[in-house]
Amino acid sequence: MSLLEVDGISVTFDGFRAINGLSFVIAEPELRAVIGPNGAGKTTFMDIVTGKTKPDSGKVLWGEDNTNLIGQSESTIARAGIGRKFQKPTVFEDQTVRENLSMALKDRRGPFAVLFGDGGNQARLMEIAEEVGLAAHVARSAGELSHGQKQWLEIGMLLAQEPRLLLVDEPAAGMTPEEREHTTDLLKRLALKHAVVVVEHDMEFVRRLDCRVTVLHEGRVLAEGSLDHVTKNQDVIDVYLGR
Amino acid sequence: MTDATLSYRAQRPPIKRTSTMIFLGTLTVFVVLVTVLSGADLISTSFVKLLGKTLCLALAAVAMDVVWGYTGILSLGHMAFFGLGGYMIGMWLMWARTEAIVQANLATQSLPPTPAELRDAIGGQIFGVVGTSDIPLIWSFAHALPLQLILVVAVPGLLALVFGWLAFRSRVTGVYLSILTQAMTLALSLYLFQNDSGLRGNNGLSGLQNIPGFENTSQAWISLTFFWASALALGLGYLLFAWVVSGRMGSVLRAVRDDEARVRFLGYHVESFKLFAFTLTAIVTGIAGALYYPQAGIINPGEVAPIASIYLAVWVAIGGRGRLYGAAIGAIAVSLLSNWFTSGGVPDIDLGFYEIRWTEWWLVLLGAGFVCVTLFAPKGLGGLVDLIARRTDPDRQGAYGPDTGAKRTSEGAE
Q1: What CATH number is given to the structural domain containing A122?
Q2: Is B269 on the interface with A (CB under 8 A)?
Q3: Any A CB within 8 A of B276 CB
Q4: Which candidate in B16, B254, B266, B268 is best for mutational testing of the A interface (most A CBs within 10 A)?
Q5: DSSP structural state of residue B1
Q6: Tens of pLDDT, residues B176-197
Q7: Which candidate, B2, B392, B62, places its Cα nearest to that of B237?
Q8: Where does B266-357 have alpha helices with state H?
């Protein structure tokens, strides 16, 4: 059944139509790759779903009771179960890996709950640190980590949030081939229970994910289907692969 | 996994806890020292008052550090809360003392005064300077100390809550927010300057050093008691804030400072956390003000002028923001220095063609100091502690090697 349904959203920035009547459905569980050339609206799509950008028209329906997410705050949407990993790893550099993960742990989020809380489930935190290969580094400051480790930390923070839908922007950027493989495995494993949307440029990576692919172009869906299916689509070849 | 957990505990000494203990220890030694010196008549009553006031300013600076250094809100209006705290306690001090004087005057008459007569006489005494004897509505609680003490907390707290809610929910940030806070304190100051504000206009409240009920106690004792109270407030305030900025709350506040958009995507309602920090620090600043002004003896609207809040930010910047003791050190050092320079303690320098008078030139010196700290020592005076710590500690952080076969930290410490 569908977890997230994006229905006919459009958004214009200073006359530029970034998203043009985009519709998109993702089920739970499902793994989906979103590809498209620069300016196709991939990031704007994520911004709209996570509440950062308000669309001019359209609906974003969420969950069993089809709540419209448009107009809700970023934090409310995040608490509803939508987690986001940014393209550029955004971790809190002057805090330790442990503090970064602890902040992300699923827990009550109000100021007083945070103030009087016990800092969250430490066993769970170490489990996640183990999963992303940072168990030995929990006491280090996140700013000291390598680029790849920061990527992992951010993936760890995403896991700690225990979201139902994971929006992952270029997860493999800056990773070694082994790390990429680990990422692919992790995403596939997550997709057994969760809805996972991966935005990616790297075709090889997408091929390894072996999932349904949505091609965006000029703010709308150009093609959808298996990677082989969409790569044979003439429109896709013209706008994206043909270059 | 266990190894990592253990090494976390072993390698990250609770620095905050250590610095808190050192701070509280130093404060205690200082209090004992001042008490002994004052008992032996080696320091004057006015100097004890100066030190007590300085401790109140240090408490305000620690609060400022939480809101600015940790949460990233450069509030240039926190001294408004300090002043409001002072006004609230000043109202009771003035009322109770005037009541005692009026009662003594009327006692010589043949008929005992009625409550209405008493009230009129008090009103005439307090508000005569602004040309009225009507008692404004805001003085309704001034006769009762407990009620006025509640207002010490409630008035700054409510102002911060309402102002913060309006500002944060519109997502006003950075320099625009600082300007708004300046506008807030300026507006408050201008309002208080009016005679019909009900708080005696530019006369302010005076005679606050006379504590009703303790007319026969010497000022030496009263100032020493206020010094102790200020030290206690600073100690408790420091403990409170050390607790607030530790743990996950501290993490979230620093995260809001560094990247508030990212914090939103983690599911935290950033505005609530800002409002929490802003209001809590406003309340503590109000309490600091309520302890300061009985020692200063007078409060007037000039005290909440925008410049006062800018000074507060300067103290925190010079002391080193992002660390509580830094803010306290900055406030104590700069305000004592300022007092020394402006009270004629430093001899003027005669250059022959021009005489440097420190009363005028102190601000230039302070400004130059501020610029130097910003440019050359962004960590402020508190950064000196890092230098010392680096000398004494082995320069290593985190586990030594990638696995258990590598050199362990325990070996390094040997």
Answers
A1: 3.40.50.300
A2: yes
A3: yes
A4: B266
A5: -
A6: 999 999 999 999 999 999 988 8
A7: B62
A8: 270-296, 306-319, 324-342
Q: Judged by CB atoms within 8 Å, which residues 173-212 of A form the interface with B?
A: none
Residue A106 pLDDT > 80: yes
The Cα–Cα gap between B359 and B47 comes to: 19
The answer to whether B264 contacts A73, with C-beta atoms less than 8 Å apart, is yes
Contact B359, B341 (CB under 8 A): yes
Give this complex's ipTM: 0.90
> Which H or E element spans position B206?
strand B205-206
Q: How far apart are CA B81 and CA B79, in angstroms?
A: 5
Taking CB atoms and an 8 Å limit, are A103 and B251 in contact across chains?
A: yes
Distance of CA B146 to the CA centre of its chain: 22
pLDDT at residue B174 greater than cutoff 70:
yes
Which tokens in the block code for residue B291? 């302890």
Q: Is B170 on the interface with A (CB under 8 A)?
A: no
CA atoms within 13 A on the CB side of B110: 0
| Interatomic CA distance for residues B263 and B257, integer angstroms | 10
Query: Which pairing describes strands A165-169 and A82-85: parallel, antiparallel, or unpaired?
Result: parallel
* CB-CB neighbours of A242 under 10 Å: 9
A140 touches chain B (CB under 8 A): yes
- This prediction has a pTM of 0.89
CA atoms within 13 A on the CB side of B380: 25
Residue A110, chain B, CB below 8 Å: the answer is yes
Q: Which two structure tokens, joined as six digits, stand for A158?
A: 């995403």
In terms of C-beta density within 10 A (0-12 exposed, 13-18 middle, 19 or more buried), how is residue B379 classed?
Answer: middle
